[in-house]
Design brief:
- By secondary structure, this protein is α/β, with parallel strands linked by helices.
- It is built from 14 helices and 15 strands.
- A 7-stranded mixed sheet has the order 2-10-9-8-7-3-4, with helices on both faces. A 4-stranded antiparallel sheet has the order 11-12-15-14, with helices on one face.
- α3 runs antiparallel to α11 and α4 packs parallel to α11.
- The longest helix has 25 residues.
- The structure holds pyridoxal-5'-phosphate.
- Pyridoxal-5'-phosphate binds next to α5.
Length: 375
């Protein structure tokens, strides 16, 4: 016998999350210089870190011997002030992935189920399965969430519905009207998680008034992150907004010091750095344009995206997306295969700075014009 034999079967059955390949790893594997590698694989902010966040962290290095504020008082105050809400409905997480896990831990258990869409963010099935609950995958519509199918997939034992808007990896967006209509149809005892990790990249007229919905729907949980538009992916900080009683429940299953002190300070500064957020969106808008033009030039189909990434169809009968991915790696460009998302012919590419986007597009063009064997 081995101790693993006694781990619950639903834990042993979890397929590991596949992260984007780190630059350092590719450098080691291919004998490349890190400076020559372009990573467009994890939807990171190509502008780096907000200068305000950087300054806040630099000033605090001497305090690292102390435990962080387990209640995140200052960050919650900053979030509340920014959004015009009460701090009682805020839950801080070690990234918003942590918050998604708290939701699963608080509401799911063996004998219950969670609903999410095909092609939706991989963390939803992962956190569901880790609790022993059953994951129900609703069919997608044009690679996006089909809310009617999701509503139909809800069972008596369903406790949580996960929706990513925009979705990762597909970049698809639901309208505010359709989301609101969906919330009206979901029984109030079922939690609806609306994951808005990419909300900052949306034009204002496409942003759902989701914070205002919280007052109407005590079963609604919004999740947001500092990893994408705020450029703090390495620090791990995100949050949930929810009904105060739900927030209280989530906080009970939270590690007391789940957000570290530098992350708390950086996020508090970053949320006030409106200039940086505006610059992130400008760079993303321009880079998205550049990618679309590039794909059109290469005659490649893509899924129109509202995030800071886009899925492009490179696989055909003659050539696999995996081979193109490998060929890009050999040339120092890291993108993301999405076969594990049921999209074997697509690659997901994060939007980078203009020169990195150009390098990716130019290498992709070279690879595609090579013979399939050589690619
Ligand atoms: C990137 C991403 C997150 C954010 O994860 P963090 O843990 O906050 O870094 C959450 N949801 C989706 C859909 C994402 O793509």
């Amino acid at each position: 016998m081995h101790p693993c034999d006694f781990a619950p079967a639903y834990v042993r059955a979890i397929a590991p999350y596949q992260p984007g390949k780190p630059i350092s790893e590719l450098a080691r594997e291919m004998g490349l210089r890190e400076a020559d590698i372009v990573k467009l694989a994890s939807n990171e902010n190509p502008l780096g870190v907000s200068p305000l966040a950087r300054a806040a962290m630099a000033a605090a290095l001497d305090q690292l011997a102390l435990y962080p504020d387990g209640n995140g008082y200052e960050l919650k105050r900053a979030i509340a002030a920014r959004l015009g809400i009460d701090t009682a409905g805020i839950v801080l997480g070690n990234g918003s992935n942590d918050v998604l896990e708290l939701v699963a831990r608080a509401f799911l258990a063996p004998g219950t189920s969670a609903v999410y869409s095909r092609h939706a963010f991989a963390v939803y099935p992962l956190v569901t399965q880790a609790t022993g609950a059953t994951g129900i995958e609703a069919a997608a519509l044009d690679f996006g969430h089909d809310l009617a199918a999701m509503r139909a997939a809800i069972r008596d034992d369903t406790r949580v519905v996960f929706i990513a808007n925009p979705n990762n990896p597909t970049g698809t967006l639901l309208t505010a009207e359709s989301l609101y209509a969906f919330l009206l149809t979901v029984p109030r005892q079922i939690v609806v998680v609306l994951d808005e990790a990419y909300g900052e990249f949306l034009d204002p007229d496409l942003q759902a008034p989701s914070v205002a919905w919280l007052a109407e729907f005590p079963n609604l949980i919004l999740t947001r992150t500092f990893s994408k538009a705020y450029g703090l992916a390495g620090l791990r900080v995100g949050y949930a907004l929810a009904d105060a009683a739900v927030a209280d429940l989530l906080n009970r299953v939270r590690q007391p010091f789940n957000v570290n002190s530098l992350a708390l300070l950086a996020a508090t500064a970053a949320i006030q750095d409106l200039e940086f957020i505006a610059a992130s969106k400008r760079v993303n808008d321009a880079g998205m344009e550049q990618m679309l033009r590039g794909f059109q030039h290469l005659g490649l189909a893509f899924i129109p995206s509202f995030g800071n990434f886009i899925c492009v169809k490179v696989g055909t009968e003659q050539r696999s997306a995996g081979a193109i991915f490998q060929a890009l790696l050999r040339r120092g460009v890291i993108v993301r295969p999405v076969g594990n998302y049921g999209m074997p012919d697509y690659l997901r590419v994060s939007i980078g700075l203009a020169d990195h986007n150009a390098r990716f597009l130019s290498l992709l063009g070279d690879i595609l014009s090579d013979s399939p064997e050589r690619a």
